[in-house]
Amino acid sequence: MENNNLKYVYLIDQPTIINPITKFYDRLEKLHYEKVNSLAEKIDVIVVDNNVARSEKDQAKLDKRIIKLKKKFSPKILSLKDFLNLIGYEPDPQFVLWTDQYPNFNPWTGEPVRMWRD
Q1: How does pLDDT run across 6-28, given as a tens digit for each residue?
Q2: d(CA 87, CA 7)
Q3: Is 86 in contact with 1 (CB distance < 8 Å)?
């Protein structure tokens, strides 16, 4: 599951499907990934959420930024869905659409709820 070749991760869009976001950051830390910004000295992978609605102007800016980063770092470009799959995101489908917070336990049975494929 862990890919040591993709250690430095630049997230164009924050994953809104994982709530709270700290669960996502904790997972990155557990797998020894480092979240970086566009000014980092090294970027191995750029993660873009293809489901984010962007204006043509914003998409053009994003494309320009990605081209610039590709020239500088030659990173792998992954969709958010592909990156989440790479780090083992496999939530219980029953709880995916909960808007407040993905639960730690099933409120009806009290059993732990799985979020990651480990």
Answers
A1: 799 999 988 877 777 888 999 99
A2: 12
A3: yes
Q: Are 91 and 115 in contact (CB under 8 A)?
A: yes
Distances (CA, A) of 8 to 41, 67, 72: 10, 18, 14
Place of tokens 């659409």: 97
Residues 57-99: pLDDT tens digits?
999 999 999 999 999 999 999 999 999 999 999 988 888 777 6
Q: Which long-range contacts (CB under 8 A, 24 or more apart) does 92-101 make?
A: 96/17, 98/19, 99/19, 100/19, 101/19, 101/20
Q: pTM for this one?
A: 0.85
Q: Are 100 and 79 contacting, i.e. CB atoms less than 8 angstroms apart?
A: no
Cβ atoms within 10 A of the Cβ of 48, count?
A: 18
Give dist(CA 10, CA 6) in Å, integer: 10
